[in-house]
TrEMBL record:
Family, per entry: Belongs to the FGGY kinase family.
Main enzyme class: transferase
Entry annotated with the keyword Ribosomal protein: no
Species the sequence originates in: Pseudopedobacter beijingensis
Domain Carbohydrate kinase FGGY N-terminal: 7-228
A Pfam family reported for this protein in Swiss-Prot or TrEMBL: FGGY_N
Name of the protein in question: FGGY-family carbohydrate kinase
Start and end residues of each Carbohydrate kinase FGGY C-terminal domain: 247-304
EC assignment: 2.7.1.-
Entry GO MF terms: kinase activity
Keywords on record: Kinase, Transferase
Listed CDD domains: ASKHA_NBD_FGGY_NaCK-like (cd07772)
Gene3D superfamilies (UniProt xref): 3.30.420.40
């Protein structure tokens, strides 16, 4: 029996750590998932268990290499961002993987921004809103001033995808999708590290940049294959769309955060956009992706709980609620629908039932989403909006979005494991001679309704 050529992808989230095998047509032929108990850093704050992660990578990779039916041709990694692994001269970690939610000392923030031109100008140049530890470069700055002895021990600071790649290859690299995502490290005007990275001696802690579509030849446990340097997960999820669609589009990736990604908007980030939660990502080919964020998934989760409690219905009820234009018309006539109206401020006793309240919740979310997505569109010629993730399956959300964007075609887009697939496709040419199929993304078109939604 001939072995099936495959690429292995480790997709490491905060909660779930997954390994996928994709065949040459990017169909998932094997999947394994693991969850680890977090450990704590020296301050008692929760953080990733690096040793569990390291062992899981080795064990899972060894397991698939032993499988008779697969021939692993290549390997790549995607993980959550804003997370560094610090390794010393001996190649071993010298510190915990500090959590990006760790509180950042206020006096160090003031010291940093006072030294490097103030929050607004700095944020504009680096496309990085002021986010404390979520700006991963600030984690290194903190170590330098709070733990100078540890700083001296650090040979390389590797973002998490590059650390996982290093575990297998023994080679150290930096990746543009990780350093170009709200890290405070990259100056988008100069297309280089910001001057503070050089002046503070941070640059020498970084390995050479390996383009996202490049690989290194690696031997592991008697097997030879091609290995990528790894990608930031948000950038990886965009890759299948860039491969399939070449006319300007927006990808609205929906989850806890709803992120509007526009790889066709090259306008520099303005201070006004930053204040409205816009930022830039970097795609795997090193070009900026204008983006805007909305905490809509979290709001939806909290407010559906409130509706469920008030009306005494199960939260699963809302998964099957269909768009009802009569509810929309009635709500528009009864209640204010202005930009200042937040559903969290609405009194649930004014609604007749849970379904009516839920329609109002989605109306309020879509009004915010319209503003957020338009920030990313601007004058970039976008004619299509692809919605993936949870809201893509929400009938009310999709119909209201179709009405909110009458000049654009709106599609619910779905594919199996977009982040992992994008990570695989990034190094397609290094292992796979089969052309990338045009049907890896399933699209459902939502026409504009006859009812006008203000």
């Amino acid at each position: 029996m001939s072995k099936k050529p495959v690429i292995a992808v480790f997709d490491v989230g905060k909660t779930n750590k997954k390994l996928f095998l994709f065949d040459e047509h990017y169909r998932i032929v094997y999947e394994k998932s693991a969850r680890f108990i977090e450990t704590v850093d020296e301050d008692g704050d929760p953080c990733e268990n690096l040793e569990s992660l390291r062992l899981s990578v080795f064990d899972s990779l060894s397991e698939v290499l032993r499988k008779e039916e697969f021939d692993v041709k290549a390997l790549n990694f995607s993980t959550y961002g804003a997370s560094f692994v610090y390794i010393g001269e001996d190649g071993l970690p010298v510190a915990p993987l500090y959590n990006y939610l760790k509180l950042y000392p206020e006096h160090l923030l003031k010291q940093f921004y006072n030294t490097y031109g103030g929050e607004e100008e700095f944020a504009k140049n680096t496309a990085s809103p002021v986010l404390g530890s979520l700006n991963s470069g600030m984690q290194l700055y903190r170590i330098k001033y709070e733990k100078p002895e540890l700083f001296e021990k650090i040979k390389y600071a590797l973002h998490l995808p590059q650390y996982l790649s290093y575990l297998v290859t023994g080679k150290v690299f930096t990746d543009i999708t990780s350093i170009g995502c709200h890290t405070n490290l990259w100056d988008f005007q100069k297309n280089d590290y910001h001057r503070w990275v050089y002046e503070e001696g941070i640059a020498e802690k970084f390995a050479p940049i390996l383009p996202g579509d490049q690989i290194v030849e690696t031997a592991f446990q008697g097997h030879s294959f091609k290995v990528g340097a790894g990608l930031h997960d948000s950038s990886a999820a965009l890759i299948p769309y860039l491969e399939n669609f070449h006319e300007p589009f927006i990808l609205l990736s929906t989850g806890t955060w709803c992120i509007s990604l526009n790889p066709f908007n090259s306008n520099p980030l303005t201070l006004e956009e930053l204040k409205q939660d816009s930022l830039c990502y970097m795609n795997y080919k090193g070009t900026p992706v204008k983006a805007s964020r909305l905490f809509a998934g979290y709001e939806h989760e909290q407010e559906t709980k409130r509706i469920s409690g008030h009306f005494g219905v199960g939260s699963s009820t809302f998964k099957t609620v269909k768009y009802n234009p009569e509810y929309i018309a009635s709500l528009k006539s009864k209640f204010s629908q202005g930009d200042d109206n937040k559903f969290a401020d609405r009194d649930l006793s004014v609604f007749e039932n849970a379904t009516e309240a839920y329609h109002q919740l989605i109306m309020d979310i879509v009004r915010q989403q319209e503003k957020s997505t338009k920030l990313a569109i601007q004058d970039s010629g976008v004619r299509r909006i692809f919605v993936d993730g949870g809201f893509g399956n929400n009938d009310i959300f999709m119909h209201l979005m179709a009405n909110a964007f009458p000049e654009e075609e709106l599609f619910a887009a779905s594919m199996a494991q977009a982040t992992a697939m994008g990570t695989a496709i990034a190094i397609h040419k290094s292992w796979n001679r089969t052309p990338i199929s045009g049907n890896i993304i399933e699209l459902r078109f939502y026409p504009r309704s006859t009812e006008e939604i203000a």
